[in-house]
Amino acid sequence: MSFTTHTKDERRAMLDAIGVASAEALFDDIPLHARFPDLELPPAISDIELERTFRRLSQRNVTLDDGPSFLGAGCYRHFIPATVDYVLQRGEFYTSYTPYQPELSQGMLQAMFEYQSMICRLTGMEVSNASHYDGATSLAEAALLALDEAGKNRSRILISPAVHPHYRDVVATYLSGTQASLIGPEDTTLSAADLVGKVCEETAALVIQTPNFFGYLEDLNGIAEKVHARGALLIVLVDPIMLGLFQPPGSYGADIVVADGQSLGIAPSFGGPSVGIFATRRAYIRRLVGRLVGKTTDVEGQRGYVLTLATREQHIRRAKATSNICTNSALGALAAATYLATLGRQGLRQVAELCYHKSHYAAVRIAALPRCSVNPVTPDRPFFKEFSVELPLPAAEVNQALQKEFGIIGGYDLGRSYPAMTNRLLIAATEMNPREEIDRLVEALEQITASRAVR
Amino acid sequence: MSEPTLYELSATGRKAVSLPECDVKLATIPEHLIRADNGLPELTEQQIVRHYLRLSQRNFGVDCGFYPLGSCTMKHNPKTSEQTARLPGFAQIHPFQDEAIVQGALQLMFELQEQLKEIGGFEAVSLQPTAGAQGELTALLMIRAYHAARGEGHRNEILIPDSAHGTNPASATMAGYIAVEVPSDGRGNVDLDAVRAACSGRLAGIMLTNPNTLGLFEERVEELVGLVRESGGVVYGDGANMNALTAIARPGDLGIDLMHFNLHKTFATPHGGGGPGSGPLGASSQLAPYLPSPIVERLPEDKKGSVEYTLTCPSHSIGRMSSFHGSFGMFVRAYSYLRRLGAPGLRAAAIDAVLNSNYLRVRLRDDYPVPFDRTCMHEFVCEGQPKGSEVRAIDVSKRLMDFGFHPPTNYFPLTVREALMIEPTENECKATLDAFVEAMRAIAKEAREEPGRLREAPSATPVRRLDEVRAARELTVCEPTLRT
């Protein structure tokens, strides 16, 4: 069906005003052979059919609500308070454009200013942009900023091998347009202290993730000083939930902090859209990428907010802009802001504590299983929310069995990213997993590993 | 009256959520890694709700009124799309679930890819880019990989018309290319002689927005495409203005090799106050192998087991542009829109977008000169200085707010002085368009007779004109830290 608004008479009057016989005549500039093609698209369906079709299609997916789930690996199931969707569904917010006209956009601008404020405090940094697409693209832009700051002689981004594989891929794609390159050893057990030793006169930045892809918390005290002494910047990729409880990267001297904000009130939604967090020191404010909201006053002295330092941006600087970013993830930032305000100082800390204790409970119980070992390589390092299990058979098989025989969505099969780790499973536990779910997982793992042949 | 910030509303000890007690044995947390205070505010649920409600009332969206923001396609965002995207089977699924238990999501992605291929006339589509500008960058990195694979990695120039969006040259720079600006001709087309002169062995490609940012269809588009292709260049189409051409003409049929779609413009997914968007990329057969991964493939009958739809990586893929599978939530919304309209509905929408824009053009041009005054597509550009006045486009824009309208885009494209870029979209009824014309005419009259009213506007908004210089000088970009 079509949703046109004009009556026949109105349409005639409009065509007469324009001075054409038909609306089709407005397209005469298009080459005839290409004009009005017959498209083979499925026929339009009614709203009732639409509702039914989409519900059926959605029911072909097993959801994270259908049973216990322990999947993480960069996308997490956390509690989303009802305030978040209440705010997201306000049409004044979600149907607005980027706030180029501040007098009509004070609501979004103030919400972004508050988002920036909360991100600054959480990360311990001085400046936050108003959002990026996701954590991976935030990291890629951080790498570009570091390269730009470092100058021509430093063309290497040294990245920890324990950074999320997708993020590494995205940074590599972004760098494919530059003279710079992404380097890093392959040994995923190296600590931040080990990696600092590899920073050299060609390195623009060292990238560390904490907790890293395997869940280990990195001890980054003293790392920034060493990186700086060698003339490079320290980029830290974090889990924002962790920041409710643990030291912020600003406290140990990070230059740029990036994160994926999906955990902050955004549904997993098959991995997107999310929101990219990007915070840095004030020294780099003029090299910052993306929108930035600043406080000011109107002609009557009333407080107000505007997009500021637009001279960094593509619509003003064009080829000399700090980035091409235009659309960002403002609504994702609004979700994150609402989430952070709702959880508040105590709530976020409590969520982080629950994640910590539950993941440790799961790890301790699984470690006690006869044929599983937990965090097999460096068992002494502290971890948060996620840990890995060495299984006596391929993780893919275990996941299949968990799903089919126990109705449990298992962990992330690390063999998908690291060919040498086909028997390792990355398991996440959050505040959404009550103890009985964890106990069910442990029992299921025990049965599966006991009953299947060791390979 | 201004709204206090979250921090101003905060008081120690307040809570808005009730979280469960820890039901497992407490583990030891390394003391030296713990922070004393995470710096978040403390409020009640009611405070939060009222705060954001009041903020929303200080914001203007398409749901509030006419929003003719040129180049942004502020069309109606159907509420059905918001519902479908929130179905638990779409919202509560994880990107790393086994493919066998997310076949519905993969099928949706596959069918969206197929429909975009058909609408654009492309060989393949990747849904991976998360925004229009990222679609541009993706395309340029593909062009780079394509030339390199053919041993022509020395090609380092990208032609960009002077009317192009700022994202085009910015993307070119990010992709390591030299942006070479090409002027427009007297009819608002890309100057073909300038393109001919710029075509050399260094040419990597061109970024072509068609209809261009003046809202005009390139009258000699096929000649232009031919010139670039003969020189070995790739033609990239910026799909920002696809709302004029959906089901009207297929860019692939005009020789475009690559083009991104803006789901948040053409296919009615919300702009969200600046995002998230989605910028799927279509490619011709020559460029398709370079598309970013993943792409959803449908397995033939004899090969499918529990899995019919599967994620794959194109043979010469440039890699990933974002984590996971792109802005899936936007795919659900766009696909809902496409299924509701079908091909006839899409064509009717494009026709009315163009009809509405031409109607406004002819009704406004006596007061607001239209420099390239010929049949336009979904938008047009006029001068924001009414005839016989000395006010500026910014003044007209601000005064429009007092009449209850969102202003058009101002000062873009750069090729028109005091530009106002007006895009009404297909959704607006004639009464709204006429009311907008009346307001614009009243403002033109004021501009001539009492220009001070425009320079002092707006006065009916929550705040009046803001001091942007002060914001940039003081750079107060977050709340001061209260606690240490």
Question: What is the N-to-C order of secondary-structure elements of chain A (H for helix, E for strand)?
Answer: HHHHHEHEHEHEHEEEEEHHEEHEEH
N- and C-termini, Cα separation of chain B: 31 Å
Instruction: Please identify which CATH superfamily of the largest domain in chain A we are dealing with.
Output: Type I PLP-dependent aspartate aminotransferase-like (Major domain)
Supply the number of helical segments of chain A: 13
The CATH level-2 architecture of the largest domain in chain B is identified as 3-Layer(aba) Sandwich
Question: What is the CATH topology of the largest domain in chain A?
Answer: Aspartate Aminotransferase, domain 2
> Per the principal axes of the C-alpha atoms, what is the gross shape of chain B?
globular
The 3D shape of chain A can be described as globular
Number of strands of chain A: 13
Distance between the termini of chain A: 58 Å
Defining traits:
heterodimer; A: 455 residues; alpha/beta; Aspartate Aminotransferase, domain 2; Aspartate Aminotransferase, domain 1; 2 domains; seven-stranded mixed sheet; 13 strands; 36% helix; B: 484 residues; 3 domains; three-stranded antiparallel sheet; 12 strands; globular
SSE blueprint:
The complex is a heterodimer of chains A (455) and B (484).
Chain A: H1 8-18, H2 47-59, H3 82-88, H4 91-94, H5 106-123, E1 127-128, H6 135-150, E2 156-159, H7 165-175, E3 181-183, H8 192-196, E4 203-210, H9 223-229, E5 233-238, E6 256-260, E7 276-280, E8 293-297, E9 303-307, H10 314-317, H11 330-367, E10 373-374, E11 386-390, H12 395-406, E12 412-413, E13 424-428, H13 435-451
Parallel strand pairs in A: 2-3, 2-4, 4-5, 5-6
Antiparallel strand pairs in A: 1-7, 6-7, 8-9, 10-11, 11-13, 12-13
Helix pairs in contact in A: 3-11, 5-11, 6-7, 11-13, 12-13
Chain B: H1 6-9, H2 45-56, H3 79-85, H4 88-91, H5 103-120, E1 124-126, H6 132-149, E2 157-161, H7 167-174, E3 178-182, H8 192-198, E4 203-209, H9 221-230, E5 234-239, E6 258-261, E7 281-283, E8 295-298, E9 309-312, H10 328-364, E10 380-383, H11 393-402, E11 409-410, E12 419-422, H12 430-449, H13 451-456, H14 468-474
Parallel strand pairs in B: 2-3, 2-4, 4-5, 5-6
Antiparallel strand pairs in B: 1-7, 6-7, 8-9, 10-12, 11-12
